């Protein structure tokens, strides 16, 4: 059976989408630990970190408002989910976030991304030894986070690239010229190399201290849209 293609859509204010995002954040931690990237996000489930769950719900609502109005609330936050058609015949063990499209296809979410417009996180803005995005200059997009669902195995292969492609298309529609991301640079720069494979170029490296933990190693990257 040939694999299905990916489709990128906006996250919706449904319980299913919100639960998918939170649970995918949580499930990523054991995977990161298994590949030697424990220091990226640690082991405490995101759903147990303060008001993370409530904050995620609010962010999805803000993203939906920006989609509907074309506005820029919360720095133009938009949240995207990547799906692919689920072709397995076994219906007794169907994935929990499977949805039925209007044309009858069964679509499985396999990843998501948050992107903002003309926004830079404080920990990047504070760097002085390399050029950071100019929030007062020409419009740009900033990838805040991207996560694919390790629970679906091979079905997620290529999902990250599909999300990045969809975001670039969104950026072209918005008239933005540059796409930025900061990458965790630990574990022998494994994630940095992935972003380079997707077309990003390194701008500069830094590290910042974290309470009772090893410093967070970061790399700022950019690509032309």
Please describe what this structure looks like.
With 225 residues, this protein is an alpha+beta fold. It has one domain: Gcn5-related N-acetyltransferase (GNAT) (Aminopeptidase), CATH 3.40.630.30. Helix content is 35%, strand content 29%. It has seven helices and eight strands; from the N terminus they run E-H-H-H-H-E-E-E-H-E-H-E-H-E-E. Helix 6 links the parallel strand 5 and strand 6. The model has no long low-confidence stretch (mean pLDDT 94).
Please provide a brief summary of the model.
InterPro entries: Acyl_CoA_acyltransferase. The protein has one domain (6-224): Aminopeptidase. 35% of the residues lie in helices and 29% in strands.
How helix-rich are the residues, as a percent range? 25-40%
Rg result: 18 Å
Gross morphology:
globular
CATH C-level: Alpha Beta
SSE map:
Blueprint: E1 6-10, H1 15-34, H2 38-41, H3 52-69, H4 73-76, E2 78-85, E3 99-100, E4 106-117, H5 122-125, E5 140-148, H6 159-174, E6 178-184, H7 186-197, E7 201-210, E8 213-224
Parallel strand pairs: 5-6
Antiparallel strand pairs: 1-2, 2-4, 3-4, 4-5, 6-8, 7-8
Write a concise keyword list for the protein shown above.
225 residues, alpha+beta, Aminopeptidase, 8-stranded mixed beta sheet, 7 helices, 8 strands
């Amino acid at each position: 059976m040939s694999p299905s293609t990916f489709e990128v859509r906006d996250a919706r204010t449904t319980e299913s989408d919100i639960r998918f995002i939170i649970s995918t954040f949580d499930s990523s931690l054991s995977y990161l630990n298994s590949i030697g990237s424990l220091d990226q996000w640690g082991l405490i489930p995101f759903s147990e970190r303060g008001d993370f769950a409530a904050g995620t719900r609010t962010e999805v609502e803000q993203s939906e408002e920006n989609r509907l109005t074309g506005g820029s609330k919360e720095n133009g936050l938009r949240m995207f989910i990547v799906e692919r058609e689920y072709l397995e015949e076994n219906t007794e063990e169907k994935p929990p976030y499977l949805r039925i499209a209007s044309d009858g296809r069964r679509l499985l979410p396999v990843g998501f991304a948050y992107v903002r417009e003309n926004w830079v996180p404080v920990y990047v803005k504070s760097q002085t030894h390399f050029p950071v995005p100019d929030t007062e200059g020409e419009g740009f997009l900033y990838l805040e986070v991207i996560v694919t669902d390790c629970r679906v195995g091979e079905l997620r292969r290529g999902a990250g690239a599909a999300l990045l492609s969809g975001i670039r298309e969104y950026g072209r529609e918005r008239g933005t010229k540059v796409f930025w991301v900061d990458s965790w640079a630990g574990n022998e720069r494994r994630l940095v190399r992935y972003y380079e494979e997707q077309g990003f170029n390194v701008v500069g490296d830094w590290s910042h201290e974290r309470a009772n933990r090893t410093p967070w190693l970061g790399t700022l990257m950019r690509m032309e849209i």
